[in-house]
Amino acid sequence: MDVPVKNRMHWELTYIFLLTGLIILLAAAVRGCSEQMAVAGFAVALALNCWVWKQTVSRTVVYLHNGLNIICAVLLAYLLSAYVFVSDSTVIGAAFGVVVMDVFSFTKRGGFTLNARLMERKNTAVRLSVCLPVPGKRGLIPVIGTGDLVFYSLLTIVPLQSVNRAGPLIAVLPVLAGQLLNLAIIAALKNRAGFKGFPATLMPGLLFIAVVLPGIQP
User: Fold this and answer.
1) Residue whose C-alpha is closest to residue 22's, from 65, 91, 77, 71
2) Of the chain's two ends, which shows fewer C-beta atoms within 10 Å, N or C?
3) Could you give the CA distance from residue 181 to residue 166 in angstroms, rounded to a whole number?
4) What one-character DSSP code corresponds to residue 141?
5) pTM for this prediction
6) Ranges of residues in the chain whose predicted pLDDT is under 70
7) 122: number of Cβ within 10 Å
């Protein structure tokens, strides 16, 4: 079935937004588990993911990676929030660093970065992303990277752990609104010559910083 390119892009953008909403819900849900359960769950999911990695790429293998990548992303973010980024200020620093590196990796000079190199390797990118069927395209298409899911999960979990009453809003609105801005920019630029993608952390990260930074005590 021949599907217009415009409709294919609509599918991909819809997937991205729905997956962002899913990761926010999972991050909020996992916040209630104990750190011991998170460590055990992450270790098991990571071990399974490593085992699946040794299997030849197939539709089943990619779907297994999808589920395990999502689980690993949420639990890793939970552990980072528990042991590393334990306050809003540390998360702001991390968010700024991730955004800068992500944007840099999309430039010509950023071709040496790990993110850029992974994106160039098709099989690796498939295994480190959530891949879904897009009408009009062959096979399963990488929709969103595992690293992006970790980033969104972290920006969700830390505000929920805050005593600030606005925590739930801060946990949801910057990521969702930022993702909508990402998608709007992608939709506007997708037909331009040389367009190869857009840094998924950019707008969620910047909105998170803009919302949280004013409330941090000096």
Assistant:
1) 71
2) C
3) 22
4) E
5) 0.90
6) 1-7, 107-121, 163-166, 215-218
7) 10
